[in-house]
Amino acid sequence: MTxxxxxxxxxxxxxxxxxxxxxxxxxxxxQIRSFMFGYIGDAIARNRVHIKAEGFNGYDHESDTIxxxxxxxxPHELVHExxxxxxxxxxxxxxxxxxxxxxxxxxxxxxxxxxxxxxANSLDVPHLTPPVASLxxxxxxxxxxxxxxxxxxxxxxxxxxxxxxSSKLAGNMARMDTMNxxxxxx
Length: 186
Ligand SMILES: [Zn+2]
Hints:
Layout: H1 4-15, E1 25-27, E2 30-32, H2 36-45, E3 50-53, E4 58-60, E5 65-68, H3 75-90, E6 95-97, H4 98-117, H5 129-142, E7 150-151, H6 154-165, E8 176-178
Parallel strand pairs: 1-7, 3-5
Antiparallel strand pairs: 1-2, 4-5, 6-8
Helix pairs in contact: 1-2, 2-3, 3-4, 4-5, 4-6
The protein binds zinc ion.
């Protein structure tokens, strides 16, 4: 049985940490700006975005639910799924294919890993770690000025989406979803 209040407060602590405020970028039609991860952290604490530990990682934009392997999931895995929630919550009406959404989520988790532990974690898609880590390091350097937001170069994004598209793990990269925001609690 998951202790939901402590699970939610742990997630809020990770997403409102200074490390997450480094995660600011534009990638295709996705924009992630300052404080968006903190916003999702608050939404989790208030159960507007739900979290469940059910043995796998994922995000369902229809029910606004982050699924995690377990309550003690590694923080960068939470950051990955929270990126999908950020896109859903802050880009209502955006039609997005799975490719840019996954590219953004892998970039966000890698920025978090490098900022908090000095190196990228090995990503679960073959050949993806080196190009994402390279992009993340340039992003971190550029965003050292808090007024700036890094724009991912098209050449990097094209390469990353191609790697994702050729992997079985990443699923159907052409699938389109319309972001419908997160709903108020009842
Ligand atoms: Zn994902």
